[in-house]
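OP here, attaching both records as promised.
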Amino acid sequence: MLMDLFTQLLAQLGQQERELTHPAHALIKSRQRFQSLFQNVSQMVWLKDPQGRYLACNPAFEAFMGLSESLLRGKSDDDLYPPQQAQRYLEIDQACLRATEPVVTERWASAVGGSRRALLEITKLALRGPDGQPNGVLGIARDITARWHLSQFEQLRSRILELLAHGADVSHLLQVLVDGLRLLQPEQAGLVALVATGAEQGQALRVVASAGLSKDFIQMMDGQPVASQLDACAVAALSGKQVVVTDLAACRPGVLRMRQGACWAQPFFDALGRTLGVFSVYTATPATPSAADIDLLEQLARLAGLAVERHQVAEQLRTNEAAFRALAEHTPEAVLVHRGGIILYVNPAALRLFGAQTSDQLLGTATYDRIAPAYLPQQLARMQAIVGGKTIVPLVESRFVRLDGSEVDVEVQGTAMLYAGEPAIHVSIHDISERKRAQEQLRVAASVFSHALEGIMITAPDGCIIDVNAAFTRITGYSRDDVLGHTPSMLNSGRNTPLFYQQLWQDLVQRGGWSGELWNRRKDGEVYAQMLHISAVYDQRGAVLQYVALFSDITERKAHEKRLDQLAHFDALTGLPNRALHADRLQHAMVQATRRKQKLGVAFVDLDGFKTINDTYGHEAGDHLLITLARRMRLALRESDTLSRLGGDEFAAVIVDLEQESDCDPLLQRLLTAANQPVLFGSAVLQVSASVGVTFFPQARELTPDQLLRQADLAMYRAKQSGKNQFQLSGFADSMF
């Protein structure tokens, strides 16, 4: 403390010089005595008379002021400083003369002419004569600028780290940095520009934060190609090295001449050494940066690089989040933050994990209450290690306690962070109850491995098969010796894509299990469908010990499902779409016709004389006739059209992609011809004709598929009444197009 220095200096003056019989001016009369006392003191020391005139000073004070003692002697602050500044110094001196104790202040002070500015801790003491009246002021000052800069920078650094921990926007982070520069060095301006890659101009500078610079200059800098080298910022970005220009005006025209003054620029990089951007400092007048200026620039650039790289990593994680959630959307991570064992923050997933309805049920409570007693020593040790900055195993299995008292198996990761500006612990919690249950099921399954009806395949973590059961051999045809040492890819049928297997393995690694259907190939080459369940088996340390796959042959089930689908949507006799599928396809065709601004026709076909065939030759002949005519009529239409059997001898056709209604006529004629052709049944010749009613879509009013079919049905009856073996239009098709 400066008070200690005062005590030492006054002691050196000697008992005689501090007695009332020796006034302070006696010290001034003895120049050699003053110098011997103060010239080797590192702090600044000076002496003034009661009127504020400098009487003496030591070399440290001369160095700061930029003036020798001989030039200072006899001058007052009014002679050296602007009026307002001189008045402040005078008021402090007068307060000191009135005080009985030393006056201690911290103040930013400037050298004469403003060539230097520093934060000083100043202690002033009034020297008094025998009558007790003040006859001088002794001042001692210590430069605490470096200490203040260090303190301010540490605060800035902590603020940046806190913002990083809370996921603040990168532009806000960088603005805080340049604002911090202005706080530390008010006479300097700052700019942060990121290197962006464009398709046309290559790499360019994008200004994301600035302080103390004009809008015109910022606009001129923003978008500047790195290769232009028009500014120290661009040169630093291109070279990847620090650039210092002490006088921008002295540079050649067109290069580094975008403003007056000086500039020093420091690029910052990612972990791979790639240039992310540049932190630049500007002064209004030519200047040479001090070692402290360069050190501050480098530290600010490092923080900028950290902020930008963290932002890029966060952006990449957000980009991948959608893909991850598609694989693990039912296993969201629970997150809580605690300090000193008290919960400060919980996310919605944590509420669900602990069975809380609101965050108030958890906030402010002890983390210890949420840890199962058997795992409390484990978690307490991890907390102490994190607080102490020690290395811990990133992920461990543990067990937590819900609010209702039930326990849940979890996987826990804890890391140190700043929360609300203070150290805290960030905890990610993954519910592994399902995985633990699956592991237990696998252990049980292992005891009946040889007798299981499902095929079982066990692989090492690298995928090599290490065991199979008898059911595996029965289903695949491969013996145990055939597959040991091979990977399951030998069973690949080729029907599933590489992306399918990539997603399967990603899900397996992240969730510890996968279930689904796939197609494999037996030893004899037959492709079959299987239902597959894969689970990871872990050792006590949480490492994958084995993968166990249980599968069953579901080929017959798939075939049965296909047959059921066929029965639900297709006519069992003719194989044509049935009434339900007809309605679905007609609805789809109506949507397409509206979108494409085209027409479609709906034809209702009824066979003439079919009942006579049935009555004369029997139902077997009738069925043969229906099958044959269905095939012929289908061939009479185009591939894009649909022919359906509605029931009995009734059929319906959906005729699409018509520019005008008359385009339908040739197709209708072909339908009539197909229905009129004779059909051989044994020695009998079967022959019928068809009556066809046609309507069109769209019409002047909105219609449902069923209404269109009824219009065509009515037109078909008019065809029968008009002599059969012909088609009739419905008369309702008042076209919209």
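Record two, same layout:
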Amino acid sequence: MDYQKTAREVLEKIGGRDNIISAAHCATRLRLVIKDNDVCDSKAVENIDGVKGVFFAQGQLQIIFGTGIVNKVYDAFIQEAGITESSKEDVKQAANARQNVFKRAIKTLGDIFVPIIPAIVASGFLMGIMEALNFMVNNGFLNISTTSSIYVFAQLFSNTAYTFLPILIAYSAGKAFGANPYLAAVIGMIMIHPDLQNAWTVATEGVQATQPVFFGLYSVDMVGYQGHVIPVIIAVWVLAFIEKRLHKIVPAALDLFVTPLVSVFVTGYLTLAAIGPVFVTVENAVIGGIQTILTLPFGIGSLIVGFLYAITVVAGIHHMYTTIDIGQLAAYQYTYWLPLASAANVAQGAASLAVGIKAKDKKTRSLALPSALSAFMGITEPAIFGVNLRYFKPFICACVGGGVGAMYASIVGLGATGTGVTGIFGILLCLHDPINYVVAMLIAAAVSFVLTWLFGFKNPKQQPSGETSGQPMEAALPTQNQTGAPVKVLGDASEREPAAKESSKSAKGEEFEEIIFAPLNGQVMEMKDVPDPTFAAEVLGKGAAINPSEGKVFAPFDGQVNLVFDTNHAIALTSDSGAQVLIHIGINTVELNGKFYTVHVKDNDCVTKGQLIAEFDMEKIREAGYELITPVIVNNTDEYASVEVIKTGNIAGGEPLVKVVKK
């Protein structure tokens, strides 16, 4: 491969040097921020020698080359363009600066809510379970003691996350806005201080006390902000604004005392006197408007929302919906939005299932069927981006099914007791009305499946060698990564993967097998479930992923280190038998620039199976908002007759993980 020629062609097709803002690379991708996306001929870039995929994500043009190639192309690209190297953080900041205010706001909401979703999900599940148990006990369907410690404690635990939600939101928002998260948590505590009347009691008891503010200019209700979201986020943004400026002007000797005191006091006063009252009104208006749409006669509003839901997922704005769920839970004790989202997700799974059953091509079936199961579990990215959008018509059929299922949910008044989980497991949030939940999901699935079967997918009469079945779109398809940012994946899967090479046979025609051992302790995952479209689509090769339980990485075989990436988040190795493996520790962790990683090997080192080659701080990486799921990819997949995952569930480092067979 001529790296200089490839770099020259990339530079030409993206619009030349004048269209470049910054350039960097990660373990597998060239990451560029360009001035004008319309000038870039993405389809032409994809056809350049060595390019395995092209997409736009988080304001970046990302060009996939793979390990061992991207760094060489990057060096040549810098030389051809005559620009200086940029760090990944430089590229990220440049990309964020180019996004419009709306996209930045949506991304910020995602950064705030994604880390606290596990706590919300846990409480939501437990609330649903306890509500169902209470119903069965009170109506004589179940005879258990409601005074036992397990029952009493479970009832106590069930609403804890929602009771102290402003503190969780404030802490997470503090990290997102760059404020001290502990000072942010104090602002959250102020907003639900016990001396304030609990907001849940206002409906029945009325406002008990008011307080004049700004020297008697007006009075505010002395009511807490239980269940509110927007006022908390705005308050913490103000805290961050004040704190950052005080750090710049307060002398270092006084900074530790003055900055926290002034930041908290000023923000706290502004919050109770102005920010809270104003933005509670705004939030109530938004939640009320959404509820008006969802309760339009005959479920028409929900039909429209259910149809559009998957489209908003593709556009990358769905992370804001957690705000809607929480607001509705505060206002109505149920969220009527989540069942609509669940219907839309199940519908996408049903469309993928129809494609998988109807397709004659083995590759299409092997992708569509597991993707359908994933969508039924609430993870829709493989179904939407790997199957339905690729053929487009199944995506539209699924949107219709989602709309019809959502319409039924609206007509019967179906609500959920929590948020964060959809699909099959979403029923745990609807245990007060499980039958209607099941019926709504079945309607969504049935409509989507039937429409896709009849109109959405057809096998081609003639299928040239190397093509996949069906009628994939020729144009660029929108997609998104795990952060929710818009992405474009160009071309179908067969175009993005290297052409399969002929397998070699020994003189006796025997197959040669090699075992790749697990480099980490943890839980084995299928590649399709990795929350990144590049890894999930196996663009860089087949393999498995591990959700680690320990921050240590071991050599998966005897061999040599090809490359340790400068950010320490990825290591490429080659076994003595020729298997080329990439261990990519975490998703999008290139953005950490090496923080929290320690590597014990260097390029060209020889390693033995089980040797400790890297360590990472799991807690700090998670606190920074990154997934630790680690793909273990066979980069030279095309040289093997098969790449098979031979272990599922829990795995220990050193256990057999993947078997490769070369004839």
